[in-house]
């Protein structure tokens, strides 16, 4: 059972902006998943630094053109090799940075059409958001209950330090994999 606590106005406004943007682009037919840091921060009733929206492999230049021409958004494209290695993953194709209603967004394009949670390096990133619903995974909730951060053995030191700093009172463990898929692997476009 999960009980939703009241959220502060700053977080609620940020969630409203995300919902507004997702409704705006709904007609494009893009399969999008909001996951990681923003839903985690909202869960803890904090405003997120930016909103990461994951997409399957697509034509990055074409998507950037649509965002610019149709929605009048200023886009900055970074291909995988141009991204700080702290944030780079083997499943990362490219990122488009843009602002919508004074909120920083990132479209994160993956190299494969898989659930982005399978590639997160920290257990407290295993959380998604959709339609004003914050959806933590069982692993996420278990880590909060046990005050434990679980990291992939392969994560880099900078990423590790950044996350430990956010949760200084949590113990730290390392595993080869941290996300256990459901019976059926979730792919983009599945109903959650």
Structural summary, described in words:
This protein is an alpha+beta fold and 192 residues long. It has a domain at 9-136: 2-Layer Sandwich (Beta Polymerase, domain 2), CATH 3.30.460. Helices cover 28% and strands 24% of the residues. The protein contains 5 helices and 9 strands. The strands form 2 sheets. It has a 7-stranded mixed β-sheet. Strands 8-9 form a two-stranded parallel sheet. Helix 5 (157-166) links the parallel strand 8 (148-152) and strand 9 (171-175). The longest helix is centred in the N-terminal third of the chain and has 17 residues, at 9-25. It is globular and about 45 Å long. Residues 182-192 have low confidence and may be disordered.
